[in-house]
Amino acid sequence: MPNKPRLLASAAAAFLTGAAAVLVFHQPTLALLHAAGLTPLSAYPMRPTNPLGAPVILSLTFWGGVWSILIGGSPVSVGMLNALLVNGVWGLGLGLLWRFIPGPLRFATDMPRTATSAQ
């Protein structure tokens, strides 16, 4: 049976590493995509979440830490590869399936522009 203090220390290290990865890698990548005009989402969002009203970036950072504890239970290379593959395929699938959503059901950014908004 694993040593409890060591298990707790490993979980804390995984949580902090995952939370830092959101701030240092995830959000700057989102900022680059936003700057390139490839996503309407901006980095480090401060708008409140439901139901607690915490800033979105705090929620993202927290959940990045939580997921890292779960991923950290497997060897690093396997956990990182699985996370990259699963999230990458999800994004690809979303992009492919989104093409089949009728125009009126898409978000406002996908709706046709009017003559005044195109100027």
Query: Treating each run of at least 4 consecutive H or I residues as one helix, how many helices?
Result: 3
Which secondary-structure class do the elements indicate?
mainly alpha
What is the arithmetic mean of pLDDT? 84
- Got a strand count? 0
**Order of helices and strands, N to C?**
HHH
What is the overall silhouette?
globular
**Structural Rg:** 19 Å
Uncertain parts? 115-119
Oligomeric assembly: single chain
Helical content class: 55-70%
The biggest sheet amounts to: none
Quote the distance from N terminus to C terminus.
67 Å
> Which percent range describes the beta-strand content?
under 5%
In short:
It is built from three helices and no strands.
Could you explain the architecture of this structure?
The protein is mainly α and 119 residues long. The chain has a domain of 77 residues. It has 3 helices and no strands. The longest helix is centred in the first third of the chain and has 32 residues.
